[in-house]
Amino acid sequence: SKVIVLDKRPVGTPTLSDFKFKNEDIVDLKDGDLQIKSEYVSVDPYLRGRMSDAKSYVPPFELGKPITSGIVAKVVASKNKDFQEGDYISGILDWKEEQIISSEKIKEIRKVDANQAPLSAYLGILGMTGLTAYLGLTEIGKPKEGETLLVSGAAGAVGSVVGQIGKILGLRVVGIAGSDEKINLLKSEFGYDEGINYNTIKDMKAAIKEACPNGVDIYFDNVGGEISDAVLFSINKFARMIICGAISVYNETSVPKGVSVQPFLIKNSALMQGFIVSNYQDKFPEAGQQLGQWLAENKLTYKETIVDGFDNIPQAFLDLFEGKNKGKMIVKI
Ligand code: NDP
């Protein structure tokens, strides 16, 4: 069975040579164990942080050890009374075609229902990125009807959901993304009122002012860097800024120098707060319930970019930094 391990810690932009493929024999199951086969693998921008050895909120991957991410897998053999062959589970698992889940690790996985939603949805809209969108926007953004919400990385997994939730909650929603095709998608699929293509706009500050004539009350930030610097010039009094991601700087080798945020925060009594979804675990059931209900009511839709084949997991991850995905990037095994 194939395994992908971290071979080198990338300096700057990661490359395929940072990953290495190995083969591993599947050992016999012990009592309480499961043998699972990966079906869908999530690739996420935050994995870039774990490839480095700098201190962060999740420990770094170890060199020579498998990379892990959100995976939906099928139980192919079970010596555990709570799981049967054919069940589907999800959890943060190794990048392996097949693997054994020991009885100690079983508390870290959960069953998922293939009849309730397509299996891939448990890695996106019904998984980490859906929860991030909902909890970041509601817990830090505290939206009020009629306000203006600006979202960066708007056509990605998190951003495409944030915008839709913003519309459900009665906000005016503006998105920033990297291509005209994505801007069209924001408006036609995700209900965005306005979109800005940061790759073709020369003056971001002016473009944001134009797209947000009443200023920005909530900024949901997925990208950081120069885009977010430009947003500061349009924030309103008591604006809330959810610092969810900073993909534009994840590959920088030195701390980028940007606009000094303090004067903007003071002048506008504005709030800027870092968000990490795992700090809100007590709210997952309620958030998951709400997302599921909106999906069932067709108030929410989602998009996935599905790449085929275990061997293409590293490339799919690298493609996130090139904006090759629309909605959630997922690898189908
Ligand atoms: P996305 O689906 O949004 O994929 C990444 C997108 O980022 C790309 O499609 C690309 O879109 C955009 N991008 C890539 N490079 C740049 C750049 N240099 N400048 C601007 N945009 C860029 O990923 P996710 O939805 O999974 O994650 C979005 C953000 O949220 C990430 O920063 C991630 O780390 C963060 N995150 C944080 C969580 C938390 O708990 N804090 C949880 C989940 C995600 P485009 O074509 O528009 O450039």
UniProtKB/TrEMBL annotation:
SMART domains: PKS_ER. This is Putative NADP-dependent oxidoreductase. Coiled coil: none annotated. Pfam families: ADH_N_2, ADH_zinc_N. Keywords: Oxidoreductase. Residues 12-331 form the Enoyl reductase (ER) domain. It comes from the Bacteria. CDD domains: PGDH. One of its GO terms (molecular function) is oxidoreductase activity, acting on the CH-CH group of donors, NAD or NADP as acceptor. InterPro entries: ADH-like_C, ADH_N_2, ER, GroES-like_sf, MDR_fam, NAD(P)-bd_dom_sf.
